[in-house]
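Sanity check

After download, print the first record. It should look like this:
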Amino acid sequence: MDKNEKWLQWAVEMQSIAQAGLYYGKDKFDLERYQRIRDIAADMISFRTEIPVEKVKDLFCNEIGYQTPKLDTRAAIFRDGKILLVQESSGRWSLPGGWVDAGLSVGENAVKEVLEEAGLRVTADRIIAVQDRDKHNLPIYAYKICKVFVQCSYVSGEFATNIETVASGYFDMEGLPELAEEKNTEEQIKMCFEARDAEHWDTVFD
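Expected structure tokens:
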């Protein structure tokens, strides 16, 4: 992590300690102290990013129990040697995907996200990689994310207008459009191509 981002690492650690303390602590005075530590961590994030502190608390300080990473799935679907990407309203492109919903497995979530964002019915076939987002994607977020890349196979369907994406298309490595790199980088998409071409693929993990 860049030295200029050490403050974020400290704020994240403070929030994690405070969250665990609020969940497991019993003494009312300790609970007050843990809450104050949590508030300071949120204030640090808000001060450095200019995001309103209420929004920071909603995203960063709204869970209970021991803090664990969030899960994000990204589906790699190939046709005619090209990979499927969907275009967001920003104009940039990404692999179909999103947060893993409560009640769904990783594979089920990958299938759901493809249907919602690309209008396609697919099967989830294998895990390409499980990556710590902070090691591969920018900007660094105030909460940890594990990204799960899932190779999927097309079954049926075609793109349909929806509230999350405005278009879809298939691309080769030499013709990738502008990517939403906070979600997937060129290196990550290259990894998906390599998995597709490998006779035997060992899941990549950090």
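If your output differs, re-run the checksum step. Summary of this record's structure: The beta strands are 70-79, 82-88, 93-94, 97-99, 120-132, 145-157, 165-171, 204-205.
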